[in-house]
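Customer escalation, tier 2.

The customer says the design service returned an amino acid string that "doesn't look like it belongs to this structure." They asked us to rerun it and document both sides in this ticket. The original structure tokens are below, unchanged.
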């Protein structure tokens, strides 16, 4: 009963805000995408604006105490696998900004890369009676348990960034995954290499010799990017030689260490450094430069995410390219899906993954992303 009212009020505010947006109200702070990251505890949403408040008041015709407390648009719990992740920091800031901009009360928790910790956070959110959850699981392998928990509590849930299987999601119809198809980003990384003058075969020996610096191998993004980047080369008829494949867990320092060791071991044999994400690529770049190698002359380097630092390096010619992992688009998609769920939409098995496209970033188009 209370929940329904919360949803009705939230929807009324949303509708009114959407109508406002269709009018002449400019989008909030378009030039300032990074917000202060609030502490993991509780962040009260700023009062949306007077329009939203009016809408709320109008919608709650039979206003009582319950309705009065939900004028902000409902309580949303957000679980991030760990705050100390460059890409997920951009993502969670975007998510928080969009949700708060819509007048929701948002609490964002740091899972600290510990699934047990995140399970507690999810249980606490449920005990607090949140209206919806947005969860970036710590472990993809914990999906069954997470889904069973939110299903049991009946909380509409959007999973992000770590995709479970269609079968796993199929057990709960108020659950959606919003993310990207990592096969696409892997393929684009391969294409970035194929687009170079010698298709990655710098020394002309008939094969592309590469090292692969992988993210957390438990993560489907890491698995697919690893597979499909190389597949793009072999599909194009290139011969490949894998000199090394190591897990760098999405981490800049590990990317630097792996590249440093491999450069010492394989030297000029390395023609391509594939990194499953940009943070590791930035680390690898430090090692490449320290070894006296020059990207795009005697070695190629590609990442994924389009972090600001990587965009700068692509523009400077210190990275061959990257692939935009659209944090803003995914955050918007997650909020849209959450609102659809709050509005009563349900999803059948096989229709629960919503994808946002990746985009190839090269020196030619990098300025569009900066
Ligand atoms: C991003 C990585 C990030 C990972 C976290 C991936 O999609 O490319 O940068 O570390 O998600 O799960």
């Amino acid at each position: 009963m209370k929940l329904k009212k919360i949803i009705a009020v939230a929807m009324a505010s949303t509708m009114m805000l959407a109508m406002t947006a269709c009018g002449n109200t400019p989008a909030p702070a378009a030039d300032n995408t990074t917000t202060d990251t609030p502490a993991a505890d509780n962040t009260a949403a700023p009062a949306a604006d007077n329009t939203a408040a009016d809408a709320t008041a109008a919608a709650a015709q039979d206003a009582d105490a319950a309705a009065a407390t939900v004028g902000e648009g409902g309580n949303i719990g957000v679980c991030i696998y760990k705050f100390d992740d460059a890409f997920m920091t951009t993502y969670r800031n975007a998510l928080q900004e969009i949700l708060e901009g819509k007048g929701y009360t948002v609490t964002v928790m740091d899972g600290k890369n510990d699934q047990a910790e995140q399970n507690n956070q999810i249980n606490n959110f449920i005990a607090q009676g949140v209206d919806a959850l947005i969860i970036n699981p710590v472990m993809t392998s914990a999906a069954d348990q997470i889904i069973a928990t939110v299903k049991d509590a009946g909380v509409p849930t959007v999973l992000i960034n770590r995709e479970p299987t269609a079968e796993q999601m199929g057990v709960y119809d108020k659950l959606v995954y919003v993310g990207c198809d990592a096969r696409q980003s892997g393929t684009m990384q391969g294409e970035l290499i194929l687009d170079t003058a010698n298709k990655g075969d710098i020394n002309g020996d008939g094969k592309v010799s590469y090292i692969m610096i992988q993210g957390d191998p438990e993560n489907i993004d890491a698995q697919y990017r690893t597979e499909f980047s190389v597949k793009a080369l072999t599909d194009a008829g290139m011969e490949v030689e894998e000199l090394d494949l190591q897990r760098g867990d999405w981490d800049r320092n590990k990317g630097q260490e792996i590249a440093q060791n491999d450069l010492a071991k394989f030297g000029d044999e390395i023609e391509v450094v594939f990194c499953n994400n940009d943070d590791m690529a930035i680390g690898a770049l430090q090692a490449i430069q320290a070894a006296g190698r020059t990207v795009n002359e005697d070695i190629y380097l590609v990442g994924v995410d389009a972090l600001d630092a990587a965009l700068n390096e692509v523009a400077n010619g210190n990275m061959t390219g990257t692939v935009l992992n659209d944090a803003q688009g995914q955050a918007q998609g997650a909020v849209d899906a959450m609102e659809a769920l709050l509005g009563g939409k349900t999803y059948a098995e096989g229709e629960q993954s919503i994808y946002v496209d990746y985009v190839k970033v090269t020196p030619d188009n990098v300025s569009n992303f900066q």
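Tier 2 assessment: The sequence is consistent with the input. Residues 85, 87-88, 161-162, 215, 219, 221, 250, 277, 279, 304-305, 325 surround beta-D-glucopyranose (CB under 6 Å). The longest helix spans residues 2-22. Sent an explanation to the customer and offered a walkthrough call.
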